[in-house]
Amino acid sequence: MPHPTHAPPIPARTIAPPAELSLEARMAATDAAITIRLEEAAVAYEVNTAHIPIEPVHLGDVVTLPLTPPLQPPPTPYPTPVAALLQRAHHRLLTGGWCTGALVDEEGARCLYGAIHIEARGDQSLESRGLQVLMHAIRRQFGDVDSVPAFNDGFASGRIPMRMLDQAADLADARGL
Asked: What count of other Cβ atoms lies within 10 Å of the Cβ of residue 136?
């Protein structure tokens, strides 16, 4: 299927309003003519670019910096317990590493669930509420996901899972959890 070519330039239209119109009426006529040309140009742009597939790109997936523990001070904690838990888990993954397929790998990196579990420090209620908020944040963006470990294991890189953990911390803070 041939791709559309560029739209031909829109020919300039000269609208000469009658001389007996007031300045305001002539300006309104000129404004209407310009608006029509801008709308036609917008349609031509949409037609010319409709064949280009576009997938949203998150800035965090494009801009990467080395993450070394000495350069990553712990963030100021959220005042609410669930948000603070999720924030600590996010920081643990940033500094200790992210893994897939295990709670903790041989190098000490953790998965989403493993980071929340260790940062909950034995508080089952806090851990459960943190996982619920994380699942809600994941489902808001990715639809029906079975579990946090299934979501975590669906990625080859930890960028998106860690971004979701950060968003879940923001969500928990906004909800006062």
From this structure: 13
